[in-house]
Prior knowledge:
- The chain is of the alpha+beta class.
- It is 39% helix and 19% strand.
- The protein has a single domain, classed as Nucleoside diphosphate kinase-like domain (Alpha-Beta Plaits, 2-Layer Sandwich).
- The protein has helices spanning 13-17, 21-30, 45-51, 61-69, 83-91, 104-108, 123-133; strands spanning 4-11, 34-41, 73-81, 117-119.
- The radius of gyration is 14 Å and the shape is globular.
- Residues 60, 64, 94, 112-113, 115, 118, 121 line the site of cytidine-5'-diphosphate (CDP).
Amino acid sequence: MPKSERTLVLVKPDGVQRGLVGEVVRRFEARGFRIVGLKLMRAPKATVEEHYAEHRGKPFFEGVVEYLCSDPVVVLALQGHNAIRACRAMMGATDPADAAPGTIRGDFATSIEANIVHGSADTDAARRELGLWFNASDLVNGGSV
Ligand code: CDP
Ligand code: MG
């Protein structure tokens, strides 16, 4: 049985700067995912550090945090069948050199840092990240899927 779930997607600063917000949102909507939360914001450093907490201590941690805070991001909550796994598949591999053509990163990304999008990795990450970036009251139907 396909299950309806919610996932957190970010359009990173390079995606916003390059005018790819519409293209990214179009792809997810065309695939059947429903927007249940959407905002443009300058991300607070504390939010981004928490968002990438699993990477704390890795060589790229400081850089990726600084990058995400450097310019506005678009924050999306998407809902649909197997949204977490399917949205990640639509993004492609983290390093655009490995991302298949037809994926967002495979079609648009220029480097591993400037790789256009973020998507929650699994159910626990999605719950945590949705709570970090959105107030439940700002999402369609609040916190319920
Ligand atoms: O975003 P994704 O879940 O595919 O990858 P990750 O391994 O969770 O890493 C988070 C983000 O850190 C990536 O999307 C890259 O932008 C960045 N990163 C990097 O700059 N250099 C690396 N060696 C690995 C990741
Ligand atoms: Mg990740």
